[in-house]
Every structure is written in C-alpha cells, then in structure tokens.
Amino acid sequence: MCDAQPMSQSRRLLVSLILLAGIATVGAGAANAAAQPLGTVLNTSVTAGSGPSGIASGPDGAIWFTEYNSAKIGRMTTNGVLTNEFGTGITPGSQPFSIATGADGNLWFTEFNAAKIGQITPSGAVTEFDLPNPFSAPLGIALGPDGNMWFTDFNQAQVGYITPGGAIALFGGMAPGSAPSGIAAGPDGNMWFTQDFGNKLTRVTMAGTISEYTTGLSPGSRPYAIAASPDGSLYFSEYASPNQIGRITTSGTITETSNGIDPLAGPTGIGAGPDGNTWFTQYDTGGIGRLEGSEAQLFTDNIPPASQPTEITTGSDGNMWFTNFATDQISRLGTGTETLVSDPVISGSGQVGARLACSGGTWAVPLRSVTFQWKKNGTDIPGATSPLYVPLAADLGSTLSCKVTAHQKAILGPYFGSSGGVTVTAAVTGPTGPTGPSGSQGPTGSDGQQGPSGPTGSNGQQGPSGSEGLGAAIFHGAFKVRRRHSFKVRFVVTSSARVSLSIRRPGAGKRRGLGSLKRNAGGGHFRVRLNLRPGKYRLRLLAKSGGRKAKDFVNVRVIR
C-alpha cells in the first residue's frame, strides 16, 4: 500500500492503507441486550464522509468507534442509536484509527496522522499524549495483561505501550518498513502483532523482547489484523492474495485456510465471537465471514458490496459489530448467541448480620475471571467486591443487588450481568426469657404493720438467636467445555459446609460425583475433567451443614 517516506508525503500515501485496514478489538459488554438471529443485519448511518474505522465495546456497554476522516470518536447504543460524536480535544486531521477499552475504565485510540495516543472517558473528555517521534504513525492498539495499552508504530517499525498515567515505552528491533499493524493480547501473557509489509507474525513480552515467525506463512500474504481465540491460539487476516485467514499457536506454529473465503475478499478486521468462532471482515467485496474450524461461512445480505467493512468487535448484546468505511455506517450482525444465559442470583435471607451470596450467572462464553460489586439502592458499596456480603444495620430497609463483570478467556473486554434486588430486613432473634418469680412478702410486725415486700426476681436469660440459613451458588464460565480438558467450577457458600459437585444428563442417566470438600464461608472451586460423550449436561452443587441443605445448578455442553 505504501513505503515509509517523510511524514507529510507518507501520510498522504498511507490513506490507501487506512482504507484497507482492520484491527480487531474484542469483547466488552454491559446490559443484557438480546442477540439477534444469525445473519440479520442492522445498518446505522453516521456523519457523511466521516469514514468510520476502528470499533470497540466500551466500559458502558455501548459501541464506540473512530471517525478517520472527521477526527472524532462516536458512541452508539446496542439498539443502533447514535448518541454522540465527540471531537473536542482531538487534533484536527489526526486520523483516529483503532480504539480499545482500557483497564482504567476509559477508551484509548491511535491518531495515525498526529503521532499521538488519545484517551476518551465514557462522558467524552479527551486527553492526548504525544509520541517521542513526530514521524510516528500509531495504528493498532489493545489492552495488555499488564494493564497498559500496547500499540504499533507503522512508520517507525516499533511497538510500545502507554500507561494509564501517560508514560510511554517503545521497542524496536524490526526491519525498517516492516509496518507493524494489528496487535492483540495473547493467552500466553504476551502481546502479538502483525508486520504488514514485513510479512511476519511477532510476539513481544512485557519486557519488550521481540520474536518473529514466518514458517508456514504464505509469501506476500500481508498479515494485518490479529485477535486472540478461546482455543488458546491467535487468528489473523491476510489481506493480499490468496486472501486467507491464518492461525498461530503461542509456540509459533502457523496454519492457513482459504476454504469458503471469497478469493477477492481482502480480509481485514478479525475478532473472536461469543459463539467461540472467529469472525472477519471482507473489505474488498463486502460481507462478514465466520470461521468454524477451517471452513468459512459468509454473510452478505444487507451489506453493500462497496461498503468496505473494516474493523469488527463483539458487542455486549452478543452480536458482532463492524464499521463500513465507504458508506459511513456502523452495522450489527446477529450471531444468535446470548452472552449471558442466566442472570446472577442472590441467595440468603436478607437479614441484617446474615450473609448473602451472589452467583456469577451462567455465560455462553468461556471466561477468564469473574468479579463482583455489591450495590445499595443502585450505588456501589465501597470495598464490597466479594461474592459474599453481610448486610449492616445501616442497610436496613435498603435494596441490595450484585453486579458481575465477566472477562472472556483470551479476550480482555468485560461483559456485565446484574442480579435482582434483595430488601434488607431486621435481624431475627430468639424470644425473651420468662420473668423470674416475685419475692415473698415480709412478716407482719408486732405492732400489726405490714412488712415491706421482698425484691422482684431478676429476668431470665435471653433465648439464643435464630440460626442463619445456608446459601450456595455456583458460577461456571465455560458454557462449552472440551472432552477430557480440565476446567474450574467456582462456587460460594454462606457458612461452613460440606460441598459436593455432581453431573448428569438432564432427564436421564445416573448422577456422577465429581468431588467433595469441606469449605468455610466464602469461595472455592473444583477442578474437573469430563471424560463424557459430547452433549448437554447439568452440574449440581450441593452444600450440607447439620440438617441444612442448599443447592444450585448450571448447564454445560461437552464438545470434542
């Protein structure tokens, strides 16, 4: 698309590159919006001539995108309503390109024609950070496992990161003109990126050590976008002939496929979907592809052939969202897959002093981690970030709820789920003991006067407090699990109990025990390896303490 040249001329020539580029930013979410039927498309127009390019799900659950031509950042709800196009604070003509959600709750974007990295809050406040070299051209950007935003420098053959506070570090070692482009966090704790003109896949450690891989990569294929996959590898697009999608393991083994892909497609953007498959854009011919194994399925209905789909991301609603550079549209493509299968549930009495437990919900995506935030009348309770919470006297009469943030395995953006509310009631205590007997009357005096009454007896002891109920909740992030692969099943209990885990086919078969352990109040997990035939199963968590029992269930699907 171009060679590295002095800044002004290089940037003009690089327009062709930008029109063809697509860096995947995968996974953030929020509200439990419904996934649309597979293949259905909703197109929403934005400002004419704005050239939408990068796209990401934001920390607020909305869809955020860059406007390359108009130097703005846009925001859209998952219902397709354009709410904002922020331009204040962004350098005019800076050509914002890629965008990604950061660990600080803001979004970060590259400014290709201004040698800057931008930060935008969910309310639209922008801060820009200058790169040391004014001839830099930052292109791809992604959140790293260290909490920093990692980016590629297309012009200077560098990769670097910027901390949430704005400190910048850069690493070289690649051939001049190699054009680092797409970047993503890998499941191995490193960052992986492509070299468009260098025709290489590259790994960089958090310390900046660079390793390059070419074996198995077609010459001149021009790898561009890259994204982590739930299967523990990374997938990348190859823009040039023969128009393929590649896969690289964390050990550097590369394989490629062109099965089902339009031979003139020009694959660019790429990302993992909530269904566990890899999705990509076809920039040159229009349409979106879904890769299942080594075979692609194409979706072209209601996507104009000349729309130039660029970047693609998973939305909080379980759909795929992508930018159309030529038609100035943001589009939603239905996957038929819900990210949140069942809401988090609070168990417990709701009485002051009695523990509540929040389950993690059931998710249709493999998860890396689940975090919790308890809320009082809709407002965060400071420090209440455990799956357990004990209502205080100050909570009496208020409504408590629990928000769960789920991070998808190998994909760093969050999804959100919220429980229903529990109204806090007064603690229940045992009855007051009976009043003691009255003292005997004193004797009558010799003069006939009545003696004084004896003292009243003391009250009996207060009866014991009523016993606290037992609550248990299971949450399991791998809705689909591979046969003979080990995985964790996490749970919480509200008091000390013997906890057991079992599995069976719904409506048939004998329940099989998977383990039992003694656990104090709090969280724990079982590590499970299922050597079962593929199909649908139901896990049961059973907690026993004295004569009390509590149980919870979650459905799993075993695949090959």
Summarize the structure.
The protein is mostly beta strands and 560 residues long.
Fold and architecture overview:
It is a single chain. The chain is mostly beta strands and 560 residues long. Helices cover 2% and strands 45% of the residues. The strands form 12 sheets. Strands 33, 34, 36, 37 and 38 form a 5-stranded antiparallel beta sheet that branches. It has a 5-stranded mixed beta sheet with strand order 40-46-45-42-43, with no helix packed on it.
Arithmetic mean pLDDT: 84
Would you identify the regions where 5 or more consecutive residues have pLDDT less than 50?
1-32, 462-467
Compute the CA-based radius of gyration. Answer: 30 Å
General shape:
globular
Strand content: over 45%
Please specify the SSE layout and strand pairing.
Blueprint: H1 7-13, H2 15-20, E1 41-45, E2 52-57, E3 63-67, E4 72-76, E5 82-86, E6 96-101, E7 107-111, E8 116-120, E9 126-130, E10 138-143, E11 149-153, E12 158-162, E13 168-171, E14 180-185, E15 191-195, E16 200-204, E17 210-213, E18 223-228, E19 234-238, E20 244-248, E21 254-257, E22 267-272, E23 278-282, E24 288-292, E25 295-299, E26 309-314, E27 320-324, E28 329-333, E29 340-342, E30 346-347, E31 356-358, E32 362-363, E33 367-376, E34 379-380, E35 388-389, E36 399-408, E37 414-418, E38 422-423, E39 472-475, E40 480-482, E41 486-493, E42 497-505, E43 508-519, E44 522-529, E45 535-545, E46 548-559
Parallel strand pairs: 40-46
Antiparallel strand pairs: 1-28, 2-3, 3-4, 4-5, 6-7, 7-8, 8-9, 10-11, 11-12, 12-13, 14-15, 15-16, 16-17, 18-19, 19-20, 20-21, 22-23, 23-24, 24-25, 26-27, 27-28, 29-32, 30-31, 31-35, 33-34, 33-36, 36-37, 36-38, 39-41, 41-44, 42-43, 42-45, 45-46
